[in-house]
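Tokenise the fold.
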Amino acid sequence: MSETTPIRYRIHPDAAWQQSANEIFVVTADNRLHNLRDEVSVALWAALEPDATLEGLVDTIVQEFEVSPDVARQDTRDFLEDAEERALIQRVP
């Protein structure tokens, strides 16, 4: 039985971003501005550098916000799906 390599995620290389206080501003290649305002999104964004796995991101949320792994996993999956759709992040090949 072979072990699968976990998917890794990183900030999209075509996205320019800046943090201001507790908010992240991201401009994507299509010149759209995206704001990440909630604490969980800001924490996940910071944990993406240089790149991260789902489980690594879940661990970050569990530690920072004292939530259950199941809640953290769902929040993280929601964040990753939304951020990938908006070209804020990408999967690492």
